[in-house]
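Limitations
The structure tokens in this dataset are predictions for the assembled complex, not deposited experimental models. Users should treat interface geometry with appropriate caution, especially where small molecules or nucleic acid strands are included. An illustrative entry is reproduced here so readers can see what is and is not provided.
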Amino acid sequence: MNNIFQDANRQQIAGRRRMDWVLHILFVVATSIGVVALCALIIDILVDGLARLQPDLFTNFPSRKADGSGMKSALIGTIYMLLIMAPISFIFGVGAAIYLEEYAKKGRLTRLIQLNISTLAGVPSIVYGILGLALFVRLLALDRSLIAGALTMTLLVLPIIIVAAQEAIRAVPKSRRDASFALGATKWQTVSRSVMPSALPGVLTGVILAMSRAIGETAPLVMIGALTYVAFLPKGITDSFTVIPIQVYNWLSKPQLEFKELAASGIIVLLVLLLLMNFSAILLRNKYQKNI
Amino acid sequence: MPRQEALTVRQSQTESKQELYNFKNKRVSVMNKLMPVLLFLCASVSVLTTIGIVITLITETYQFFQKIPIFDFLFGTKWSPLIPPKSFGVLPLLSGTLMITFIACLVAIPIGLASAIYLSEYAPKKVRKVIKPILEVLAGVPTIVYGYFALSLITPLIQKVFDSAGVFNALSAGIVVGIMIIPMVCSLSEDAMSAVPRSLRDGAYALGATRLEVALRIVVPAAFSGIVASAVLAFSRAIGETMIVTVAAGSTPNMTVNPLDSIQTMTAYIVQVSLGDTPHGTVEYGSIFAVGMTLFVITFLLNILAQFIARKFREEY
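Predicted assembly:
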């Protein structure tokens, strides 16, 4: 009698172990799907795009024929847009973060702003495009210009920067502020000379990541009318422009195979740019992480 | 006499030092008063953005509904804004969007959740260290790149399996949107699972539970609110996704349940119209805002719902 129970028990345990083992394998497989997808994506793009990754791509303007067609205007447009939006979004994003972390009193208004920021982060990017179209392009009459695009993208990345900067500021120990106050420093002196210098690496990491989000965005810029065919370089901030993802989209929407290859090589350039930015963000993070 | 002179020089020096000190002090106090105001203005930009979005959408949508009755928009089953006879029933766009979202969630939620369980309960530290950055990279890939991926790799695969699949089909776009949101489901669920205290797991292990039983009967139920919130956010993200569906799902608004058909989502329609240089004030131009409003309201409600679930049903330990 006892034996039967023991056998049943042993069997039951073996069954549970087997179940554990089977699902373990299943979980590993599921996790590797993401990795496999990333590898497939990269290989697919490299195979299609490497052939057209030639100097022409960087020195020529887009043209009707795929051969010799380039993305000079898109590359320059992306860089210009970054140069305009980086300082603006840095100032407003970091300013907002400092206010929320150092100055704001814990109350209903602060909670509202905080809730608003997390909600904004979930708004689809194309809705920012609609706002940009109505506000910057029409109302402020900036037309389809570089500055209208840069401002729209600034609004898009602000929540990301604010959240990252808030985390960096929060990580600065309270003792640092106390020491500064003890020396007779005012609030602003403490914030600007004691807190911000030690929070800066974290803040910059956030800003770089936000910028890398911005250079990959297509939809909002299509909305505000970044042109898909630009055979000139923007001379001022009110000129029309294009960016790499829009150029890629343009090539992708053409039926010929050659343009698809061009799109793939455009994507390679975009991904390399993103990789460089992410890499510098990681370097920055690792270098200064210990110093706080 | 020279002594007297030196004295006055020294006196004037102290005076100027005092002045400098006063000036510095004044500047310090001005900064101290001014900066909070400036910083508050920075913080209010985010609120103004929300207000701007809402006002823009409401005013333009209101004008649109002056021309097209709101009932026809919400319940009309034909969307044909550019080709006469014009018709503005949003349901085909909505059904297209929901089909993409449904396929995407079917892909992303099981895979994302399984990856989260693996990373939080099974994976050794070394594996975690490799997998997590890879998932982060996957989350950072621009959507236009995913669009290319859908068109050049997934669609041909689907066409090999199903003969009736067109170049543009909902299935391909849906799968790729799903792949795009896997990292989001995974990292949010994993956060929720790692917040479950170690003592709960240890208690279960002490009773002789296997790892699977600990994961499915202890950790997942304890982290359930976070997991559901991550699924809702993923759903909302899939609804708002634009470039993948624009590139791979086609531009034929039609009410179908066949995922191999070409469809059009709300986001893809907005892109299509804004590419066409539609003049300001026309019905087509207004339709962008009406569709955008629909999109905004849906995603906004979902985001609020996710936050509500995460807060309301959180198990506190």
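Some entries come with short summary sentences. For this one: Residues 122 and 228 of chain A are 27 Å apart (CA to CA).
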